[in-house]
Structures are given as structure tokens and as C-alpha cells.
Design goal:
By secondary structure, the chain is an all-beta fold. The strands form six sheets. It has a four-stranded antiparallel sheet, with no helix packed on it. About 40% of the residues are buried. The protein has one domain (about 1-170): Methylamine Dehydrogenase, Chain H. The termini are far apart. The mean pLDDT is about 95. It has strands at about 1-5, 10-15, 20-25, 30-40, 45-50, 55-60, 65-70, 75-80, 90-95, 100-105, 110-115, 120-125, 130-135, 140-145, 150-155, 160-165, 175, 180-185, 195, 205-210, 210-215, 220-225. About 0% of the residues lie in helices and about 55% in strands.
Length: about 230
């Protein structure tokens, strides 16, 4: 299954990935952005930016019934992920830069984990090592313990990030940076870093383990395909 947010239409679509047929479309708050799929519990978690008359919100919807729970947020949301047990959702908030932690499905037991770098943006979780990786607009990748929120490491990156993926096959974290147009890869175990040029404005990626990274490049009019190898 694929979940796709429709920012201009204040909705998200539930799509069958095999047939590409839309199963359902659900209304959300204004400008839905980050979304997480929780297949173990049949849930979708949608973070909505809001507008001049609506505060940003986080919403939980049960598939296929629709909206169940919603709360207002303390700032603009970015991406969100869930833990391996599907008990908690972690949401990146741009300003104040933090990770908001909530219990599913009621969005209860809220915790605020402040970050040492401004503009929390790209976001990923390593379930095996219990680590969160947050790429921040102030050009840093921050690592946190996903159990308690302690910052365990931080690395500089080459610019303001967007989509961020962990490759569980290699352990590398890949951060798309639209300006100047690159993917920066960091091995959290060794601190090794590598940069690969993509194209200006290329900030959306898709990872297909074990070794394919697709970068959607406006300047190329298509997708660039990279082979991921362990960093040395």
C-alpha cells in the first residue's frame, strides 16, 4: 500500500501499489505534508501544516474508516516515523526545532525532545539500533536514542536537507540536499561521509534496499538511479 498526501486538496490517497488503483481518499486538515503508514494497526498518521485560519495538526486515521484522533501542534510539522512496535509516532517540528513523541493511536503521553540544530526536517529511524536521524535546515544531521531522546551524535552536512533515508542493508543515512543538488551519505558507525552530485532542486528520493537510491531531478526531467555501497 502507498499513502500519498495531496497538499492542495487537503486530503490523502490510499493506493494499492500493485494495481495503482486508489482505494480511498480521506479529507485532512489544510496542507497535509508528512505521512506514516502503520500497517500492523491499520493506521495512517498525517501531519498537516495548516493555513492562516487553521493551526497545524497531527491526525490519525484508521483504514478504511477514516479520521479517529487529532491534536494541534506547537509548530510546523515535517516528516514523521513510528517505532518498530507501532506504539509511538515521532514527528519533526521545524520551529521550535524538536521531535514530538506521541502514543498511538490516541496521540497521548506527549513528549518534547529539543534538538541542538534548527529546522528539523528530513527524518528516519533505525529500528535495529534504536536510533533516530534528523536532518536539520541548519546543515546538521542529528542522531538520537529513540527510547529516551538523548542526542548521541551530530554531523555537519553540505546544506539545507529534505528527504532522508536509512539503508538498513548498509547502515548509511542518505540526505537529499536540493542546493547545490546532491545526496550526502553518512555512516553513523564510523562517521565516514560521501557526496554525490545530482541536480539543482533535487530533494525528493526513494530508497529500494539493498542498493538502489532514486533521486527525482527537475533539471534532468526524470529520476537518477544510484547504486549504494557501504562507505569506507
Amino acid at each position: 500500500m502507498v499513502l500519498a498526501t495531496n497538499r492542495g486538496a487537503a486530503s490523502f490517497a490510499w493506493i494499492d501499489a500493485m494495481s495503482l488503483k486508489t482505494q480511498a481518499v480521506f479529507g485532512t486538515g489544510p496542507r497535509p505534508n508528512g505521512v506514516a503508514f502503520v500497517p500492523q494497526r491499520g493506521l495512517a498518521v498525517v501531519a498537516c501544516i495548516g493555513d492562516d485560519s487553521h493551526a497545524p495538526t497531527l491526525e490519525v486515521l484508521a483504514l478504511p474508516r477514516g479520521r479517529q484522533h487529532a491534536i494541534e501542534l506547537p509548530g510546523r510539522p515535517r516528516w514523521c516515523v513510528t517505532d518498530a512496535a507501532a506504539d509511538r509516532v515521532f514527528l519533526a517540528i521545524r520551529d521550535p526545532s524538536m521531535i514530538l513523541v506521541l502514543r498511538l493511536p490516541e496521540l497521548s503521553e506527549i513528549e518534547h525532545w529539543p534538538l541542538p540544530s534548527g529546522g528539523a526536517h528530513g527524518f528516519e529511524i533505525d529500528h535495529a539500533r534504536n536510533r533516530l536521524y534528523v536532518a536539520c535546515d541548519d546543515a546538521a544531521l542529528v542522531e538520537l536514542d529513540s527510547a529516551i531522546g538523548e542526542v548521541t551524535n551530530q554531523w555537519r552536512i553540505a546544506g539545507a536537507p529534505d528527504v532522508t533515508f536509512l539503508n538498513p542493508a548498509t547502515g548509511s543515512v542518505h540526505v537529499a540536499i536540493g542546493n547545490p543538488g546532491m545526496v550526502q551519505s553518512i555512516d553513523p558507525g564510523t562517521g565516514a561521509s560521501a557526496e554525490v552530485a545530482t541536480g539543482a532542486g533535487a530533494h525528493t528520493t526513494a530508497l529500494v534496499p539493498p542498493d538502489r537510491l532514486y533521486v527525482f531531478s527537475p533539471s534532468h526531467g526524470g529520476a537518477l538511479v544510484f547504486q549504494n555501497a557501504p562507505l569506507r
